[in-house]
Design a protein that fits this description.
- The chain has about 800 residues and is α/β, with parallel strands linked by helices.
- The strands form nine sheets. The protein has a ten-stranded mixed beta sheet, sandwiched between helices.
- Helix 6 packs parallel to helix 8 (about 170-185) and helix 12 crosses helix 13 (about 315-325).
- Bound molecules: nicotinamide-adenine-dinucleotide.
- Nicotinamide-adenine-dinucleotide (NAD) binds near residues 195, 225, 243, 267 and 269.
């Protein structure tokens, strides 16, 4: 055998990580008392346990207390008891606790890593080098936020008791993403890990005991969907933070509708990995290994759809197959292992089923010629080619080591294919041409975009999705807002509209009859149903009639809003100019609007003049902020900058209040427009003439057709149509409590972002009913990671 032969014959020897410390910890613990409530270790009140086992062998690891609804009650009570003192403690005091947690985790870093690998099956290299260090970084980063609350979040306070539910794919990291910002914000928590992977959360609770976390601030309960549902439905909880599947996310959105609970959802994905023909193919292949075979593909933001430019498809696929053949499948505790087992037999069966169905639908599924270990839930890395866009492997989140490949011809096609999914979590763009990459990134409907990289995370950079990947961000400034509530000035309780029941006397004027239509796509149009709604003056006389908008009119308005590209693509300066024009033209007709307010609402002439003046001022405010409410640049500990861009949410439905009918409408429409959203507004049902009088103001102000659409009619009915419409991205509802609750419940089709007043209006005249709190609702933050250096 010559040297070259020897070289080629060389193989990796076994390099197992020692597990004795972890086994000793497992043997010493009483898992029958695994609920950490109020600083005490408790058994489940019913005495029930569930099994957690080792994915690489199927062997039982522990029988863990299974929390009942009574245990969740006890945990919420403990969190509520601890809340006043914890939220009133100084930022410095909370920072010290967060720092102590991070430092204590560092001291037990290896035990965390080994336990995570044993319980979840992920290769030790990943838990040791990625999961655990990132979790620690999260606590240390958030120690800083605890002390910066007054500086960075004036006018905000912690939301209170938080219920947190996490999945099994990154048990410790997801726990850190949840608990660190909550504690920094002064909240107390009840957290439930996934039933497959309870172990590192139990070790974490021990760390809390040692790090001086006050009793009841962190409560960790164990159990499955039932325990999760008890948390979601508990009236003592002020916010739910959920990470998991889109299916369960929708159940939770529905269950919390009308409860007033704040909600953040980090859900599934089907992320595109786009390789242009000028990409460095070898780097792209290594990127793919991290993109889809990291954690066996059980990653929410896995680059599970490879989109490759036609001219390089064969070359890239050949390189991918060669690389796949060298991936080492084996014991997750071996330091040389690339692919460990899936978390559970049910997950393995699911992945196999999806691959079989994908093949049945025409995909060619290729796997390297490798032997699988004799025990455990292993699945070979799989490459599916010839995948049509409708194939199940291109559409469904497999959550396994399966890559679906499609080709594209040009940039437009790449973007279209990438966005052809109901999800919107992440995307990778590979090109040596940074101009091309930065041209594509803003056009991708995804919360995170990595340029020439993948799966990069940092505590300072927000992470989260668009569309059915959920809403809210974790990490950094945006993540902190999820645990804080802006102190907005509340207005009166809103009663359901009753106008239809009121008989309206004929008007006594002799003006020429004028019937207001709807305003859709820049034109005044008749309502589809050809019905009208009578509008009464404050004295009960007929003030005029407006169109009675219907489902069809809302659909037309949404289509017009979607088709309007001129507004979202306009420069911020251009939007600023148009909002100033609106203010200018409203000001020119201030007398007319004041008279209308007096006539309809019966307010004094002075109050009416004030409302019109404030409406003009508010348009001025948002005109001025249109080019100032900008994103940020983060500098994560990597050779990369992260551009946190503010993008419009998209098509926003606005259901405006009756109180201050002109000011309320403008206070909502102006910030949405300022950030580049297109709007479908349903004005006050009682006073719609204030909105229809605006048509001419809009027409004279250079507003592109479709940017503002106004549909008059019955609030409850039209709010429901907007809520159910899957092409509406955001919905702001200031209506009665029942209408608000229904809008939240009915929004689950596309998981649109709903902002509801929960049956309360705001004090629209107050200065606090304007500014950043509104603009923040009007944007999605997209984090674009751009690496630098050779
Ligand atoms: P899952 O939705 O089945 O379960 C997640 C958690 O919710 C578990 O703790 C489970 O016990 C609990 N749960 C289940 N049903 C519930 C109910 N009706 N009410 C309350 N709680 C309930 O998800 P999973 O299989 O554990 O995790 C995989 C999913 O998580 C994937 O879809 C993945 O994309 C997603 N994920 C998303 C992110 C992100 O940041 N976006 C991160 C990791 C994982």
């Amino acid at each position: 055998m010559n040297i070259l032969d020897r070289y080629h014959a060389m193989d990796y020897g076994p390099a197992p990580e020692a597990r004795n410390e972890a086994d000793a910890w497992l043997a010493a613990r009483d898992f029958g008392k695994a609920l950490f409530i109020g600083g005490e270790w408790k058994a489940a009140s019913g005495g029930k346990t569930f099994d957690t086992s080792e994915p690489s062998s199927g062997k039982l690891l522990a029988k863990v207390s299974d929390a009942t609804a009574a245990d969740i009650d006890a945990a919420v009570a403990a969190a509520a008891k601890a809340l006043p003192k914890w939220s009133a403690s100084s930022g410095y005091a909370r920072a010290k606790v967060l720092y102590a947690i991070g430092r204590a985790m560092q001291r037990h870093q290896r035990l965390f890593a080994v336990l995570e690998t044993i319980d979840n099956g992920k290769p030790i290299r990943e838990s040791r080098d990625i999961d655990v260090p990132l979790a620690i970084r999260h606590f240390i980063h958030h120690a800083g936020w605890a002390q910066a609350l007054d500086r960075d979040f004036p006018g905000h306070e912690g939301v209170g008791v938080v219920g947190q539910i996490i999945p099994w794919n990154f048990p410790l990291l997801m726990l850190a993403w949840k608990i660190a910002p909550a504690l920094a914000a002064g909240c107390t928590v009840v957290l439930k890990p996934a039933e497959f992977t309870p172990l590192t959360s139990i070790l974490f609770a021990e760390i809390c005991e040692r790090a001086g976390v006050p009793k009841g601030v962190v409560n960790i309960v164990q159990g499955g969907p039932e325990a999760g549902a008890s948390i979601v439905n508990h009236p003592g909880i002020h916010k739910i933070a959920f990470t998991g599947s889109s299916e369960v996310g929708k159940i939770i959105r529905k269950a919390t509708a009308g409860s007033g609970k704040k909600l953040s959802l980090e859900l599934g994905g089907k992320s595109a990995f786009i390789v242009f023909e000028d990409a460095d193919l070898d780097s792209a292949v290594e990127g793919l290994v991290d993109g889809i075979w990291f954690n066996q593909g059980q990653v929410c933001c896995a680059g599970s759809r490879l989109l490759v430019q036609e001219g390089i498809a064969d070359a890239l696929i050949a390189k991918v197959k060669a690389r796949m053949s060298r991936l080492r499948v084996g014991s997750p505790l071996d330091k040389n292992t690339d692919i460990g087992p899936l978390v559970d037999l049910t997950q393995l069966d699911r992945v196999k089923g999806l691959v079989a169905e994908g093949a049945r639908q025409g995909a060619v599924c290729w796997q390297p010629d490798a032997a699988l270990p004799s025990t455990g839930y292993y699945h070979l890395p799989t490459l599916a080619t010839g995948v049509s866009p409708a194939n199940i492997l291109a559409q469904e989140e497999v959550f396994g080591p399966v890559l679906a490949t499609m080709t594209f011809r040009n940039t437009e096609e790449a973007i279209e294919l990438a966005n052809n999914t109901r999800y919107g979590l992440a995307a990778s763009v590979w090109s040596e041409n940074v101009n091309l990459a930065l041209h594509v990134a803003p056009q991708l409907k995804a919360g995170v975009v990595w340029v020439n990289g993948t799966n990069m995370f940092d505590a300072a950079c927000g992470f989260g999705g668009y569309r059915e990947s959920g809403f809210g961000r974790e990490g950094g400034r945006e993540g902190m807002f999820e645990y804080l509530a802006a102190k907005l000035p509340l207005g009166p309780v809103i009663k359901p509209a009753t106008i239809s029941a009121q008989p309206v006397e004929q008007s006594d004027g002799d003006a020429i009859d004028r019937t207001a239509k709807l305003f859709i796509g820049g034109k005044q149009v008749r309502p589809d149903g050809n019905y009208s709604l009578a509008v009464a003056t404050a004295k009960g006389k007929l003030a005029g009639e407006v169109g009675l908008g219907s489902r069809k009119d809302i659909r037309d308005a949404v289509s017009a809003a979607r088709a309007c590209k001129a507004w979202p693509e306009a420069t911020a300066y251009n939007r600023c100019q148009v909002l100033y024009y609106l203010a200018e033209n409203l000001s020119g007709r201030a007398g007319e609007f004041s008279a209308r307010l007096v006539q309809l609402t019966g307010v004094s002439a002075k109050a009416a003049r004030d409302e019109v003046e404030q409406s003009i001022e508010r348009l001025f405010l948002y005109a001025g902020l249109a080019d100032k409410f900008e994103g940020r640049v983060h500098q994560p500990p990597a050779r990369a900058v992260t551009l946190a861009l503010h993008e419009p949410v998209g098509v926003v439905g606005i259901v405006a209040p009756d109180t201050s009918p002109l000011l309320g409408l403008i206070s909502l429409v102006a910030p949405a427009l300022a950030m580049g959203n297109t709007v479908v507004a349903v004005p006050s049902e009682r006073y719609p003439l204030l909105a229809t009088d605006l048509y001419q103001v809009i027409e004279y102000s250079d507003v592109p057709a479709g940017a503002i659409n106004i549909v008059t009619g019955r609030t409850a009915e039209l709010a429901g149509v907007l809520a159910k419409h899957d092409d509406v991205d955001g919905l702001w509802v200031f209506a009665d409590a029942d209408t608000c609750a229904k809008a939240e419940a009915e929004s689950i089709g596309n998981l649109k972002r709903v902002w509801s007043g929960n049956g309360r209006g705001l004090d629209w005249a107050s200065d606090e009913a304007a500014g950043d709190a509104f603009l923040r609702r009007a944007v999605e933050v997209k984090n674009v990671w751009v690496p630098y250096g050779d």
